[in-house]
Amino acid sequence: MKKKITSLFLCMLLILVFLNNVDADDSQTNKMIVKEIPINDCNHISDEIIDDIGWFTSLALDDNNIPHICYYDYTNGDLKYARWTGSDWAIESLDTNGDVGRYTSIALSDDGHPHISYYDKTNGNLKYAHGTGSIWSISTVDSFGNVGLYTSIALDSQGLAHISYCDYTNRNLKYAHYDGSSWQKNVVDNSGDMCIFEYFSDYTSIAIDSNDRPHISYCDFSNFNLKYANQFGSSWIIDVVDNEENVGTYSSLVLDDNDDPHISYGDITNENFDLRYAFKKEGSWNIEIADSEGDIRKWTSLKLDSEGNPHISFYDYYEGSLKYTYYDGEDWNVDIVESEGSTGCFNCLAMDSSDNPCISYYDWGSKAIKYATNTGDGWNIQTIEIDTNTDFLDQEQKYCCGWAYIIDDTKPIAQSFKPTFKTLTRVELMVVKRYNPGDFRLSIRENLNGNDLTSINLSSDEIAEDLSWKVFDFPDIEVIPGQTYYIVCTTYDVASYDAYFCYYGINDEYEDGEAWIKSSSWKEISISGFPDPDFGFKTFGLDTGIPDITLNGPNNGKIRTELIFTLESVDPDDEDISFCIDWGDGNIEYTVLYPSGSSNEIGHTWNRINTFLVKAKAIDINGAESDWDTLEVSIPRDKILHSNGVLRILYNLFGIPILKSLFYLLF
Description:
Largest sheet: 9 strands, antiparallel
Shape: globular
CATH class of the largest domain: Mainly Beta
Low-confidence stretches: 1-50, 653-667
Number of helices: 4
Structural class: mainly beta
Radius of gyration: 28 Å
CATH topology of the largest domain: Neuraminidase
Number of strands: 50
């Protein structure tokens, strides 16, 4: 009788395998002046950054309002993809071959499968990743020259990918589309410099209309104009949308139900620094100011709600905050999403089916990628992934009035500050060199005439001539939170034309410190017409309050059956905690934030037989992390599988979800 049941089961199994395969589917004397601009964390990005995660985020929502986000892991140089499972974020590293994943863009097909365009920095190529369930295919779209910067992707009615991007070699705007068998590529605009800055503002944005024709917004840097291109047949029709001084940066394009274009973008003209919004109606372009408070709007992202009203997320350069504005039919309404530290770079906006805004973005202060939603009762913010192998931003003065103080070997300068962390790890300065001065020395002191607590010397070759943040990574020291310390800067062998300049802001931008200079003695800097100066600086440190971790759960279970584990952690500073769990089977999971001291259940299912070492650690909101707690979990063979070799092979080979139920029903 048992042989007959087994034979019957094998027949059913083969049918199921066949059906499963059929259904399977195959995204100042003493000063120097320059153009007046604020310098903020996300604006001049240095290759000296050691640990960082969450750059170039791109967000799409599926039909169930589930967020899918791609982004760049700077620390490892990888392309990553995160999806909300309903209880936590499932994170995958999609491409780890070289330094890949910058300038990502994502689109979802009707079946919810992601399509992603991105830049391969190692090879200077445009690449494309397409996911179908658990399988990802990766291909090179364009490898002619250094191409693939500032990508934007959209899908047509057939689910085929269209990508706009920059050719950095030739300074052209290019376009590629997949015709079902191969990638077709052409130049959209080569009339000037369409791509001149890396990391800056050359962003392109693409949308596909109801006739599957591409539309692209971008900045013409030769003239600093906002341009818009749409394809008609084999030709491109190009409009100059806005040519009022320096406009067109960080553009974002959408089409309405009539295929009319709407574009958000930045105006970086000195007198303005506005967020602008342009839309085409009855053949004419209309331009509005969506926000004018503060300075420089960057990384704008535009979407339309079900009524056709525009919603824009953007990064406020001066305030270092993520903002969101929308038009209600009469006025623009601006809201601050998050403003702690410097947060909101690389933001991307989506609207859910109820017209609620959802935003992915990068938080510089905590070195994390985050996701914010607002359903009417305020902003709910989740941390998707945080780089725990790093220090954290503590004190900062990030505004530059456009003037700089010369650093002389006979007249060193200093900036006082008050740390809040117990360990000081490094300092960044807004400093440039002219020609070839001698070594630059930075030190930390408890008093200006005291000894150095720590110091570092850099050669002239290590400091740039253009305005940027310079990292001074000295040996870590312990400091007393709230006590005044001094960043002291000096140099050697300064000649008439060889010098360093340290830029400053005015009007007491940093209230917990002052700018100092030494001649015969130290004194606060006082400059007529430039009240209360503070040098541009950032300090980084570590919070030594380390959370604990307790992992509890079963030591054995059954294959393809969920096991429930309990995670508990108490943070000494009573800060919220997230958990990182390594399940031992290649899956690493990051949870949402939980209150300190709470007991939290999380489940996992193993799909193969083995003994697994589960590891978990707690991470507080500042990134302080516990040691690993471990638990060994054994997933043994089922008796029926162990006794019947044929069934065991088929069971492990196909793993059809209904298969297990049939096993236990029949046996």
